[in-house]
TrEMBL record:
Residues annotated for ATP binding in this entry: 221-227
Role description: Catalyzes the synthesis of GMP from XMP.
All residue ranges annotated as the GMPS ATP-PPase domain in the record: 194-386
Organism, scientific name: Thermatribacter velox
Residues of the active site: 80, 167, 169
Matching PANTHER family: GMP SYNTHASE [GLUTAMINE-HYDROLYZING] (PTHR11922:SF2), GMP SYNTHASE-RELATED (PTHR11922)
Protein origin, superkingdom: Bacteria
Catalytic activity: XMP + L-glutamine + ATP + H2O = GMP + L-glutamate + AMP + diphosphate + 2 H(+)
Protein's name in the database: GMP synthase [glutamine-hydrolyzing]
Keyword Ligase (UniProt): yes
A molecular function GO annotation: GMP synthase (glutamine-hydrolyzing) activity
The protein's enzyme class: ligase
The keyword Membrane appears for this protein: no
Amino acid sequence: KIVILDFGSQYTQLIARRIRELQVYSEVWPCHMKGQEYNLNSPEVKGIILSGSPYSVTSEEAPTLPGEVLQSGKPVLGICYGMQLLVKSLGGKVVRAAQREYGRALLTILEKKGLFEGMGGETICWMSHGDSVVALPPGFVKIAKTEDCEFAAIRSEDGKIWGIQFHPEVSHTPLGKEMLANFVFFICGCNPEWTPESILKQQINYIRNEVKQERVVCALSGGVDSVTAAVLTYRAIGDQLSCIFVNNGLLRKGEAEEVLKSTQKLLGKERVIYVDAGERFISRLRGVLDPEEKRRIIGKAFIEVFEEEAAKLGNITYLLQGTLYPDVIESTSVWGPSARIKTHHNVGGLPERMQLKVLEPLRFLFKDEVRTLAQQLGIPEKIVWRQPFPGPGLAVRIVGEVTPERLEILREMDYIIFQELSKSPVFRKIWQSFGVLVPVRSVGIMGDERTYEYVGVLRAVLSEDGMTADWARLSYDTLDVIARRVVNEVKGIGRMVYDITSKPPATIEWE
Ligand code: XMP
């Protein structure tokens, strides 16, 4: 595998994904490497990449290069800050530039081998740095430059240590992926072995070794992560798995039936326990206006229902969770979860309360890998490409009080939005699209009659991970059809508006 030491760049995860796209397994380790699991001398580690960083190597608090990196004798590639750190640690010189270099630059390749094997004389690269290397350490040579950057790429004479000032992981560096491929295949000697088949095999082995003869319970939500985790675990341990699917009465139109049907088909009818607890959730939400209060009530009710059902199953040791790699990276990062604020842990505390161990078979996978795995497992496309859906469901898409009548209106509106957008070729590019009900009345005219109905909102955003988002530039025709259909067909909505706020400053959900 390739280890990427994370010095805090916003692009670190992207480097890991690029390497995995080359079918080479990669892991992101915190740059402090505190913990026994971080051993660069392990024979599994074939090469090391040092990420960029928001720090300047010239500053006092800047993270330093762990001694193991060079001691390990493994091939090293420093990117941006990573390169500057190598230069500084090995006796070269880095200074703070008068002006930040940011954006596209024309790279002149001086040596067409190693990292630049098979590449022409000039290519575009993406720069983003404030510091610059002004003198190389002894035993280093320059292998590429740009107009503003004398040392755009360097290497040690023995070809073990490489540095590039630009970012090969972003799409603005068109040959970036080839450069990373040259590093992992030619310089590190990796083979393309991280294939969907091998991922499947490895994960199944992992589950079997971990669980042995114990029993596992899974909270199915119908999202791609929980369904994939369940099907994978079922393949690994069969009857030792039980799944509980709680219908909280806050799902989209037809969703409960659909999730139940498809998961029972994948896992066997008897393995999926369906609990229709809508009443319990909705009655507790009566009169509640505050969004955080709604979340608390829903979280608590969920735990209650889940515990009751799990108790009926008897001896359970593990709770299966669909945690993904980005969450794992964040929780081990030096900057910690605080750097990227995450507040939505619906059932945090559940494993401790129930005294269950956690089984997380997807904890080393990125979302796109989970989708590939899901396809490999025969999970229907509809689930594979399902948009993320918040645990508290439609309750956070009705501003203010949740009532059965409002839920019904929202479901109908949301369904039309889904029908119209899912026809469009841009649908797969949309991160989330949904309706929001604003229970404020607005005047309209239909036929000869004056109407006085609620406001419906269409929300559609593009995003990589939900942390930031941009509103989707839907066509006027699409917006037009949705507005017409909703106001004509949904009793209770008199006006449709499109939310054109990005995140930040707004959040994706309205509550
Ligand atoms: P916001 O609205 O904070 O949402 O921009 C970011 C992402 O998180 C989802 N979300 C939630 N997910 N429980 C969840 O499981 C919640 O309470 C919750 N609130 C928001 C939201 O759908 C988006 O994908």
